[in-house]
Amino acid sequence: MNSVSTLRDLAKKAVNLLSRHDFARIYTHYDADGISAGAIISKALLRAGKDFQITFLKGLNDFEPEDGELQIFADMGSGYSELMSKIDADLIILDHHKPNGEIKPKKGFVHVNPHLVGIDGTYEVSASGIAYLIAKELGNNLDLASMAILGAIGDKQKFFGINGEILRDSVSSGYAEVKPGLYLPSGNLLKALKMSLEPYLDFYDKEAELYEFLKKIGLDVEKEVDDLSLKEVQKLADAIALRLLKIGAYEGVFEQVIGKKIFLKNLPVKNAICLVDLINSCGRAGEMSTALSILFGDEKALKTGLEINEKFTTEILEELVKRKKEVKEGFCIRYLVMEDAVSTSPIATIFSRYLMPDKPIVVLNIKKDGKVKVSARATEKIAQKLDLAEVMRLSALRVNGIGGGHRVAAGANINKEKIEEFLKEVDRLCCAMLA
Ligand SMILES: [Mn+2]
């Protein structure tokens, strides 16, 4: 039996456990994948005549388990075996993070995680993909595949394996369409190029330069990105490639920019990457229920969400312009210390992929309560030699904080008084790994 059908068997088991309940408590992550997973499960439960309550969490560190009703954890749980073992209720975990330790359930338990059946959960299926597999077993829910696509894009996954299957499901049932195009938000060219965070083209606050850029290739600023002809797309793609070279972007981003564009016809924002950005900004702003309502088709929520997204994107772009001069040089790293800033991770990502890709970057944000949130980023090229997850874990440990993550993207939480000591250790470890 292949691993995909094993995963499907697990999904069937989850449906079996579900069928014994009329109510479920859903806990899910506050990012695009977690919110999409929550939307898929709750919609599927409603259609099956069941009730639910949904809670969005940043993580499980401060989680207090409740007893009683069926509990469903999405996009989290697999890494917290001790905590999960304490739950005195029927339990379903839908996660794609690497499991850590053995879960000893007190009641009925189904653990649906691709890693358990030999499928790579990093790239091939997200939490919302797993939620969709369950929804598909539960009833006629083909339309929910669109939201599984959102989750995969949100987690920067690829469309092969299970994700590929989900995309095919969605295309063949007419809910999704894949067209060649540029990885750009929808809207007119002026706005799309100026406001895009991925790819970041450094046109914010540089309108004259942007007008010149478009004039040179003969495109009107008012033209809609989604209306460009194939020939115009090609022209724009070449010009964007040159622009990325000029600003000194990491070579790995080039292939990201040009490729397929996915449109989701049954969701309120058709361009999938725009909708993912929208959901993510709502999550970052703490407006998870707005994000959920958007996915449920609420127009008022959409209006609110678009405002949140615009405000968030503008804040990040402003911050980038302002902070560029404040980035400091270490021996083997660059770092930036901010106070009470909107967000650290998009800033760290853009510095590392677009503006200063030759060294790892560490962005620190001192919160009002004296706690410091750290985001560290490195390109895949640097990460061949260096593991930022280890760097963050060890450096944070040294100053009584906690850190971890992935090789290219990691983070930590430390205290304000320890910043200097922490940065010194980060720099020392990076130099050691890069040597
Ligand atoms: Mn996820």
Protein architecture, described:
With 435 residues, the protein is of the alpha/beta class. It is 46% helix and 18% strand. The chain has 17 helices and 13 strands. It has helices at residues 3-18, 32-47, 81-85, 127-138, 145-154, 161-172, 189-195, 207-216, 230-247, 254-257, 272-284, 288-295, 299-323, 345-355, 380-383, 388-398, 419-434, and strands at residues 23-29, 51-57, 68-74, 89-94, 109-112, 176-182, 258-264, 328-329, 334-339, 361-366, 371-377, 402-405, 409-415. It has a six-stranded mixed sheet. The longest helix is centred in the last third of the chain and has 25 residues, at 299-323. It is globular, with a radius of gyration of 22 Å. The structure holds manganese (II) ion. Manganese (II) ion (MN) binds at residues 33, 75, 96, 126-127, 155.
CATH architecture field of the domain at 3-168: Alpha-Beta Complex
Q: Name the poorly predicted regions.
A: none
Small molecules held by this entry: manganese (II) ion
Counted beta strands: 13
Give the class from helix and strand content and strand pairing.
alpha/beta
Secondary-structure element pattern, one letter each: HEHEEHEEHHHEHHHHEHHHEEHEEHHEEH
CATH top level of the domain at 3-168? Alpha Beta
Fill in the CATH topology of the domain at 3-168: inorganic pyrophosphatase (n-terminal core)
Helix fraction? 40-55%
Report the biggest beta sheet as strand number plus sense, adding barrel if it closes.
6 strands, mixed
Give the overall form. globular
Summed over residues and divided by their number, the pLDDT gives a mean of 94
What is the count of DSSP helices, taking H or I runs of 4+ residues? 17
Output the radius of gyration. Answer: 22 Å
Strand content: 15-25%
Strand order of the largest sheet: 8-9-10-11-13-12
